């Protein structure tokens, strides 16, 4: 009798976990954390790169709502002005500074940007640096990658991001505190067929920032690496366009939920967080915890995903594993 009860309980638990996992939009540690801790960001200075659109814009809005002071950066100043005008919160708009910058502009110019950022709020300096900007990432076969495109991707996603970090670190170390929030990607954890260079750049930042934390956590420096799968940033896409149609066929976590979970991860001090629906989340778990199986699955998917990308089809569906990479 006890055996039957135990079997029933275990089966129920497995079914419950299966459905929980099937509908999850992030890793279990992240989803167990509850809401963002407002007290960790209220009155703090948050510097966000790539804040002129997409996830960065939504992050700026949510940080402002939580009472943070903001520095928003990207190349397009007009878009930064628009974002600033839309911010609502305890310190918006007077506590919001616009700092245009190009991450590919080299050490001297980024050093100047850091000095300006630090001077905006001299009493506190920068508390959170959100490395969110990234170079454009069209999907192509690895055979078609040009030298110009991989240099441009690395200049922004890796070199510029690291230079900015190196310039900011001495200020943070002097204060004995500072928190880097790094928008990486699922492509920084698992192979991303059709996006080899983007994937390489995100693996690079993951390696850099996890190492940075291991060296400097004893000096008050925190790092949260966020790895989103497909996110819906389609707000500005033209209705009916090929990109918009393709996007709507893919299961994407909303930019707003992605930003919310990013702030949850950071304010709860998580070292890494994954944000995605299935099947990407399952693939991330497989590659992380059962790499032989994970890479086997990715090898089954790889060529089909590149083909699907070329045909403007769904590049995140189960059909890549179980069916033909058909055009949606
Ligand atoms: N969207 C997704 O599905 C997804 C999935 C996983 C990870 N992510 C990551 O999440 C982050 C945000 O993604 P997103 O989709 O919101 O990106 P996005 O819409 O492409 O926006 C990129 C941002 O980066 C800025 N940027 C680009 N080049 C720059 C440069 N040279 N210097 C300074 N800023 C530059 C852009 O602004 P300007 O053009 O004004 O400079 C823009 O604000 C990225 O790191 C991305 O890799 C996104």
Automatic annotation (TrEMBL):
Pfam families: adh_short. Residues 44-234 form the Ketoreductase domain. SUPFAM superfamilies: NAD(P)-binding Rossmann-fold domains. PROSITE patterns: ADH_SHORT. Gene3D superfamilies: NAD(P)-binding Rossmann-like Domain (3.40.50.720). This is Ketoreductase domain-containing protein. It comes from Amborella trichopoda.
């Amino acid at each position: 009798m006890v055996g039957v009860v135990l079997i029933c309980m275990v089966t129920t638990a497995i079914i419950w976990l299966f459905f929980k996992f099937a509908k999850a939009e992030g890793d279990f540690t992240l989803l167990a954390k509850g809401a963002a801790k407002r007290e960790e960001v209220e009155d703090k200075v948050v510097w966000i790169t790539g804040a002129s659109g997409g996830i960065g814009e939504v992050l700026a809005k949510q940080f402002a709502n939580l009472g943070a002071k903001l520095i928003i950066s990207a190349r397009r100043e007009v878009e930064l002005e628009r974002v600033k005008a839309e911010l609502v919160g305890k310190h918006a708009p007077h506590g919001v500074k616009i700092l245009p910058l190009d991450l590919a502009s080299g050490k001297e110019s980024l050093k100047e940007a850091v000095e300006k950022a630090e001077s905006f709020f001299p009493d506190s300096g920068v508390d959170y640096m959100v490395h969110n900007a990234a170079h454009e990432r069209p999907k192509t076969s690895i055979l078609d990658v040009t030298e110009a495109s991989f240099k441009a991707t690395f200049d922004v996603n890796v070199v510029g991001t690291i230079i900015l970090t190196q310039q900011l670190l001495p200020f943070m170390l002097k204060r004995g505190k500072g928190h880097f929030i790094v928008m990486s990607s699922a492509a920084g954890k698992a192979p991303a067929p059709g996006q080899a260079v983007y994937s390489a750049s995100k693996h690079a930042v993951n390696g850099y920032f996890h190492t940075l934390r291991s060296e400097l956590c004893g000096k008050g420096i925190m790092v949260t690496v966020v790895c989103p799968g497909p996110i819906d940033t389609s707000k500005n896409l033209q209705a009916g366009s090929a990109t918009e149609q393709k996007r709507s066929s893919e299961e994407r976590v909303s930019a707003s939920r992605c930003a919310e979970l990013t702030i949850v991860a950071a304010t709860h001090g998580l070292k890494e967080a994954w944000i995605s629906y299935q099947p990407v989340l399952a693939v991330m778990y497989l590659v992380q915890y059962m790499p032989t199986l994970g890479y086997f699955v990715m090898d089954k998917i790889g060529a089909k995903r590149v083909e699907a990308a070329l045909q403007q089809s769904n590049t995140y569906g189960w059909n890549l594993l179980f069916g033909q990479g058909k055009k949606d």
